[in-house]
Amino acid sequence: MTLDIQQEKDKIKKWLTKKDTSDVIFSLSKLFVNITKSIGILPKEYQVGSDVLGFIEENFFTTASQRRQIDFLLILFERLNNLEEIVQKEIIDKEEFEIYLQRITDNIKHESYKDKILAFRNALVNIATGNIQNDFEIEYFIKYLINFSDLHFALLLYYHKPEEALIKAGIDIQALKRQSGGSERIIQDVFKNVNFELIKVAGKELMDVGFTIKDLPVMRAMGTGSTYEILTQNYLTELGAGFINFCLDQCKEEDITNKRLIK
Hints:
By secondary structure, this protein is mostly helical. The protein has helices at 5-16, 23-38, 52-59, 64-82, 89-92, 95-108, 114-128, 135-147, 150-160, 162-168, 173-178, 183-190, 196-208, 227-232, 238-246, 253-262. The protein has 16 helices and no strands.
């Protein structure tokens, strides 16, 4: 997700100097200024219309954590810009949305797992476009998105599309359909030989919070079915599936096209 430094400077300048734009873009621009101030990328005293380029040239951030934060913000705001027609101004103008963005941006400096960073972006897009509206649900899911380890999140992605994960790991699907047992070894292969006991602990924690119906998809005593069937069953609960949807970009191009036609 890392952007070229000159690209970053140009994009920062663009968001700080938006002119003759829609109400939605104007609101996003104000939000961008507030967040960059709060995380120390812009000084608190910065005023729109100041010598933006001069400030960026003289004070451009160099720490890895700030680079992650600004990369995240620029990619998020570019996506919201592209979704201008379906972003809901009444949502992004709320104090709650700025707080969600602040919490997530604060946490981004500690993250390097690309799938999880993408999930943070998708969650904010879903909130901004009104795909997720229940404040209690949003707060609950943000809490777990922040607190889950990379392994927890990788497990959930596996549960979401198990066959895809198996194929990506180079596992022969047809051979699994003829096989019985050995699922523990295959799970380790999917997760790049992470200690199986650690995978079990993470799996149990997902089950304990109600996101899955069992700790891991492994053959139990007297179990039936092929290894493929065991590994690819739907183990997500309704709550777990809801969390996954929260972490996926729910905006379709046809939604944007339809909104343009209505206008």
